[in-house]
Amino acid sequence: MTAPVPARPPRKRSTQGVWYFVITIASAGLLAWVPFVHAAGCLARRELYRRAALFGAGAVLVVVLMSLTPTDAQGHTTSTAGHIIAPIGTLLILTLVSLACLQQAALRRQVYPRPETGRPVPGPVPATGADPAVTAVLAARARRAEARRLAERDPLMARELRIGRPDLPRDYDDGGLVDLNNAPAAVLAERLELDPSLAEAIVTARTERGGFLAVEDVFTLTELPLGCWDLIRDRGIVLAR
Asked: What are the TM regions of this chain, as residue ranges (predicted)?
């Protein structure tokens, strides 16, 4: 038997950061770089300025293609060249908007973290005399939840406590978290129970991108088996590089 646990109060939906998507979609991707500049200033992450530059370059290319598209007096596309350039421009716009919104969704959670309305409930509390192994697992889950909250509130402290870095000397117990942005491949393989080649793939992806923005980025940028996703979600954390 387990003791009943009070339900966690629901989180209020936050509208902060929605302007990221509004400005990106309303401008047809031409201003998709603006949220990245804003996030770079808020998070002090220079790699976001590089990402903003890439989206800015894409916007310039769209403008160039639009200016090169032949049109008649009514604004209708004319000539064979026009019918080739116009679809390319449209496809580029759709690509800019979709990629920007996908990345901004994760970025928004870091710039505008939702306030906690209660302590996370890691699971049922075992009754007296419960299996010690179950008790240990639940306690580790609670530690991970607490460490994640701390990292969200104070990223600098999280780095000082070396959350997610079992390879470094430390005194803080984070419940077994592993930092997907900074931990070596050997640590990723051990803590996430991954084949070494998959751990190396994560390191390669984060190096090429300049760091992950959220745990979910690992799944979109690497070809990891579905069987390991839940464990990565449970133990993975992303801290700034």
From this structure: 18-40, 52-69, 81-102
| Non-local CB neighbours of 128 within 8 Å, separated by 6+ positions | none
pLDDT tens digit string along 1-19? 444 544 444 444 567 789 9
CB atoms within 10 A of CB 240: 18
pTM of the complete model: 0.51
Both 102 and 176 in one domain: the answer is no
Domain stop point among 111, 146, 172: 111
Span 209-231, average pLDDT: 90
Residues 80 and 135 in one domain: no
> Which residues span the domain enclosing 224?
131-237
Q: Could you tell me where the beta strands, DSSP code E, fall in the chain?
A: 2-3, 125-126, 178-179, 236-237
Query: What sign for the dihedral angle of Cα 179, 184, 185, 191?
Result: negative
**Structural domain includes residue 152:** yes
